Amino acid sequence: MPVQNHIPISSNLKENEQFFKDAIGVGTSFDLGVRKLKVLKTDVHLYYCNGLCDTQYIIKLLEILVEANDRERQTSKVKTVIENRLVHQQVNPIENLDEAVDFLLTGLILLFIEGETTAFAVDVRSYPGRQPEEPDTEKVVRGARDGYVENIIVNTALTRRRIRDERLRFEMLQIGERSKTDVCIAYIQDVANPGLVELIKKELQEIKIDGLTMADKTVEEFLVKQGYNPYPLVRYTERPDVAANHLLEGHVLVMVDTSPSVIITPTTYFHHVQHAEEYRQSPAVGTFVRWVRFFGIIASLFLLPLWSLFVLEPSLLPKNLAYIGPNEKANIPILVQLLIADIGIEFLRMAAIHTPTPLSTAMGLIAAALIGEIAINVGLFVPEVILYVSIAAIGSFATPSYELSVANKISRLILLIVIAAFGVPGFMIGVTAYVLFLVNIRSLNTPYLWPFIPFDPGAFMQILVRRSVAGSSIRPSIVHPQNRQKQPT
User: Fold this and answer.
1) Which of 188, 198, 202, 482 is in the most buried spot, having the most CB atoms within 10 Å?
2) Which residue, among 400, 384, 416, has the nearest Cα to 301 in the 3D structure?
3) What are the pLDDT digits (tens) for 101-127?
């Protein structure tokens, strides 16, 4: 039966026990239990959830409570004795059974005392999970090797360790009628735009759903209402240093329990093309790495459409570039070859994800050495198709944001089809429509192509050139920070 709201705790322990049996299945679910004991001749019930509690803490508390029978006078007030012997930093009095249920299913233990209408919730949570380790998708040559995990408490601690500012705030919400998932909003009080914080909090509080089984991705779809737009409207990171840097710039983070990824808001297109590696090297090296990455992203988006256009219109090429294009007659139309090869790369990516690591290397060798070579020999592909599709695929892999790389692949396929249908006018119209589409995107009232459109010269130069930390004294205006000037605490 669903838990009713604001049911007061009964002074009769049997009534409370019956409620827990009916409401959440104590006695039926093997992981929910109750330990009954007497303290100073008074019945005390301790409720717990196996797997979410640290058993050692519970045993220690039980030992201390039982010792009260030998050390306290029998006439002592039981509630006061128990409260003073709960040796833990987080002990909350509760008066409603619905609140007690939420605490119990979160991993806290509950202490009910016969004759009292107030119970105690003690935080002895110990969630199963892995230790912080470097994220696979955001590796750096030099830098921290810790990363966010599926435990929201650990994630807030990793962030707090990097920003020890007294104005750093972590506001906790619970979302999901059934899952009651913990969702945390993180921001720096005197830096982040209060309007942005209130907007995000309002959007989160309006989420009505059974549960957040897909964690942060479900929250994102409610938060930015993306629809079928393939381009990412928030940025994900699993690196605490990246998250902390965005907090100092005035961004707001959304952390969801059970997810190792943190949502950064608001973000633009150019947030998705930066990587922590650029800031772990000198400004000159960081700028070089950034430009190489830019060329890879541009190649992943426009190389195949341009090459297919030159194949259809060889007259567009100058004489010294006349070698670009298929040097032998193709049995299958070039567009079909490009689509098959491009989608084939996607097959390989999916197969690599679902294949155990020792086997994925062998699979890649088979795909590269056998499938590609044989496909050329039998006339399915011309060699140039394999070359340019491979370069575009490498550009996709060089894109820091996985979500952006997939969105660029979809845009690339659409451009290929438009060029095959309309030739040069199709290329011009397709590219123009693509840019206009990005211009019209707004993420939490933030222009997606800022600082390119609307143009901000200073901010745009920081996108093109990685400035030194000492020279970056102004926070980005796009987040409307309360304090534009970066300064020590």
Assistant:
1) 188
2) 416
3) 999 998 899 999 999 999 999 998 888
